[in-house]
Predict the 3D structure of the following.
Amino acid sequence: MHKYPSDISKEEFEIIRKYLENAKKKTRPRKVDLYDVFCAVLYILKGGIQWRMLPSDFPNWKLVYYYFTVWSKKNDDGISILDKILKKISKND
């Protein structure tokens, strides 16, 4: 996969992996690497582009959008997993 400025390192991803994996009940093995999906979400958020304009070396935009909606769902406190993760990785910058 092409390297983009919005990507995080694999080491940073390992810190947040458990949050992303636990956001959705796993019923079958994943066919896509969550690292690639998360980097695609960051690409969209930082670049401000439309979902359908996501470069083809990322996973399919519909799958990325699906994970974005799962990770963006607010809990009872009004905070999403994506909110928590973005705060956590911004502290590491």
Notes: The chain has one domain: 10-92. The mean pLDDT is 90.
